[in-house]
């Protein structure tokens, strides 16, 4: 019986001959937030891309509820229940806010996973309801981030991968992103890549720290705080 929803087991990933992820293992339990930290270039986004199937791992396993997805396509991985909020948001600027949500929506989702509608997303992000007929390109940075999260929720995920959701946002909006993460974590397990250490430590149950593609710390939020002084050199953030 798998107690972890998502598990990486000795994952190795490459860009051509460049070996970027070295035996990365981590575990995410239901209802938890796992912060994936590390300085620029540490391999955080590559790890997210490897899980989502965009950088297929050369070896190792990506287990979702015990099933290995390491050789599945991004589409299969998304359907299996892994939602992605990519770094830089990557919303479709020339589509309306509503169309951005609808392109991601799923007709069929296995029992046990919440089915999200546009109304559900609007309840979480009221500004998206107000702006649903506007082009997504006309949204503010914060609104675009809300849309990127909403679009990922429309795929009815059991695990959400979020790559630097606070990047480039004003402090007030970063707090709003934090509130949204708190709301979501009761329903969805979240793997959160963050450069904003304050936000990460506010919401994370556990922490994995990468340095040059290797795990240099894995433990609870409290353990991380206790060892933070020694780990600071791997963070590259304050
Ligand atoms: N598409 C790519 N092709 C080749 N190398 C890449 C590519 N994307 C990232 N890298 C390299 O892989 C390493 C990890 O990058 P990345 O996963 O983006 O780090 P992070 O998200 O932690 O900043 C870096 O050395 C980076 O230069
Ligand atoms: Mg990155």
TrEMBL record:
It holds the Pfam family ABC_tran. Residues 6-237 form the ABC transporter domain. SUPFAM superfamilies: P-loop containing nucleoside triphosphate hydrolases. The keyword Cell membrane applies. InterPro entries: AAA+_ATPase, ABC_transporter-like_ATP-bd, ABC_transporter-like_CS, BCAA_Transport_ATP-bd_LivF, P-loop_NTPase. Keywords: Amino-acid transport, ATP-binding, Cell membrane, Membrane, Nucleotide-binding, Transport. Gene3D superfamilies: P-loop containing nucleotide triphosphate hydrolases (3.40.50.300). GO terms for molecular function: ATP binding. Belongs to the ABC transporter superfamily. This is ABC transporter ATP-binding protein. The lineage of its organism: Bacteria, Pseudomonadati, Pseudomonadota, Betaproteobacteria, Burkholderiales.
């Amino acid at each position: 019986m798998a107690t972890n929803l998502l598990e990486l087991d000795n994952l190795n990933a490459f860009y051509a001959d460049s070996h970027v992820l070295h035996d990365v293992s981590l575990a995410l339990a239901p209802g938890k937030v796992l912060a994936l930290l590390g300085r620029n270039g540490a391999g955080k986004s590559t790890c997210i891309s490897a899980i989502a199937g965009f950088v297929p791992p050369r070896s190792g396993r990506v287990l979702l509820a015990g099933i290995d997805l390491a050789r599945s396509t991004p589409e299969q991985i998304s359907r299996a229940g892994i939602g992605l909020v990519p770094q830089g948001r990557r919303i479709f600027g020339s589509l309306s806010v509503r169309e951005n949500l609808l392109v991601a929506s799923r007709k069929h989702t296995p029992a046990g996973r919440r089915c999200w509608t546009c109304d559900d997303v609007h309840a979480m992000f009221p500004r998206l309801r107000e702006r649903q007929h506007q082009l997504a390109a006309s949204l503010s940075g914060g609104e675009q981030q809300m849309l990127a999260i909403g679009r990922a929720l429309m795929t009815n995920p059991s695990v959400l991968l979020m790559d630097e959701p606070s990047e480039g946002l004003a402090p007030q909006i970063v707090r709003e992103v934090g509130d949204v993460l708190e709301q979501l974590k009761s329903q969805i397990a979240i793997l959160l890549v963050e450069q904003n250490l304050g936000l990460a430590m506010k919401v994370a149950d556990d922490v994995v720290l990468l340095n040059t593609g290797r795990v240099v710390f894995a433990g609870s939020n409290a353990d991380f705080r206790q060892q933070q002084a020694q780990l600071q050199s791997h963070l590259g953030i304050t």
